[in-house]
Design brief:
Structural class: alpha/beta
Shape: globular
Strand content: 5-15%
Helix content: 40-55%
Order of helices and strands: HHHEHEEEHHEEHHEHEHHHEEHEEHEHEH
Largest sheet: 8 strands, mixed
Number of strands: 14
Distance between the termini: 29 Å
Radius of gyration: 21 Å
């Protein structure tokens, strides 16, 4: 198979949670352990930073990777989901995995993976850990997919565990309260391995702290007043919070013997996009009118986006909005009512039908028009915008993926 045939094989054969939802979800690590057997356990040979959290885990993982790169290390980075290219999930010092490597991996291991009936995500975890071992990385930054305790990435033995935040998302799988979700996220804490915890409520902090005590793991709460060593190339107060978490991870690694000078932290935070290829976080696509894409998709994410809008200057606000069909739509109350909305559905089975989105959004005071596609919604927003207006594209990774 060539690369496109290999991708077609993966997408056609294996269910993908991001596209079809619950039918693809496997809350069990038995498959992943079986894959590790097939791969001769690459996870045992890797040093890792393992990052979980409801929001901020992707940005924080990219920041940590950027800092480690600036410190001179050979750094693997595994994140999900991707926006445009499957290979975005697998990076080595910012460089995406080669198409030929993906083809070689699938050809080599499909006979061993097929009897396990591995999910799309499990295939990806196997590929990431195998490739990082092949490349002899110094350290790999691994972002969880969903949850933590039963996430496929939870086969790694990290140098540091990280929990960026706790909020209500994927409640159907992880629990209906923040404390229940925290229990699942805290499942990544390993015996004797320090855990860095971002800004969380006291009740949530206690859940994570109790798990850390059980595992005799140092519990390190990020100082919300910590000054950053220099500018950050990502916009928003929430990214400052993520940056403090990344700095605390770097300090913790230093305590454990890694060489990360202050200048590496400063440069790493100022070069996140350049070093890692991060996209979709308040990403400016156009200047006049200002067009911004952000992958916010839950209550906390929408709240952060609204805070960022409050610090932005514009004449009128237009929001291109699409969501997936298993989200709690009460999160829409966090979005500004004064905007004009252009409702749409991303081109995936899991997208919420546009007329249903428009109807439910109206209940939260969000008014606008329905459009047959993301592209049509964006075109309509541009035709109604003046040069001093702001257009925000948000609600789902898949909506953003269609415009960047």
């Amino acid at each position: 198979m060539d690369y496109q045939e290999t991708l077609a094989y993966l997408y056609a054969r294996l269910p993908m949670y991001q596209r079809i939802g619950k039918a693809a979800y496997k809350a069990d690590l038995s498959n992943t352990w079986a894959l590790m057997d097939v791969l001769e356990h690459p996870e045992r040979e890797l040093k890792c930073v393992h990052v979980a959290g409801t929001n901020g885990k992707g940005s924080t993982a990219h920041m940590v990777a950027s800092i480690l790169q600036e410190a001179g290390y050979k750094v693997g980075l595994h994140t999900s989901p991707h926006l445009k290219d499957f290979r975005e999930r697998f990076r080595l010092n910012g460089r995406m995995i080669g198409e030929d490597v993906v083809v070689r991996f699938v050809e080599r291991y499909r006979s061993g993976f097929e009897p396990v009936q591995a999910s799309f995500f499990e295939w990806g975890v196997g590929l990431a850990l195998w490739w990082f071992r092949e490349e002899e990385v110094d350290i790999a930054v691994i972002e969880t997919g969903m949850g933590g305790r039963l996430d496929s990435t939870n086969v790694v033995g990290p140098e540091v565990s990280v929990i960026t935040s706790i909020g209500l998302d994927h409640a159907e799988f992880l629990g209906r309260t923040e404390e229940a979700i925290a229990t699942e996220k805290a499942g990544i804490i390993k015996q004797g391995v320090p855990v860095v915890v971002g800004e969380v409520k006291d009740s949530v902090s206690e859940v994570i702290r109790a798990r850390a005590r059980e595992k005799q793991a140092a519990f390190i709460l990020v100082d919300s007043t910590m000054p950053l060593p220099g500018p950050l190339d990502l916009a928003g107060a929430h990214q400052l919070r993520n940056a403090r978490t990344a700095c605390t991870v770097a300090d913790t690694l230093t305590t454990w013997g890694w060489s990360i000078p202050p200048e590496a932290i400063r440069l790493g935070l100022s070069r996140v996009v350049r070093n890692t290829g991060l996209m979709g976080r308040w990403q400016v696509l156009n200047e006049r009118p200002m067009i911004v894409a952000d992958v916010a998709h839950n209550r906390d994410g929408f709240r952060v986006v609204s805070e960022q809008l409050g610090t932005s200057e514009f004449e009128r606000l237009h929001i291109v909005l699409g969501v997936v069909n298993d989200k709690d739509l009460s999160a829409l109350r966090e979005l500004p009512k004064e905007a004009t909305y252009y409702f749409c559905k991303a081109d995936i089975p899991r997208g919420l039908e546009v007329e249903e989105l428009k109807r439910q959004a109206a209940a939260f005071g969000l008014k606008g028009t329905a459009h047959p596609s993301v592209a049509a919604a964006l075109l309509a927003s541009r035709s109604c915008s003046g040069p001093d207006d702001l257009i925000l594209i948000t609600g789902s990774v898949f909506v953003v993926a269609e415009v960047i």
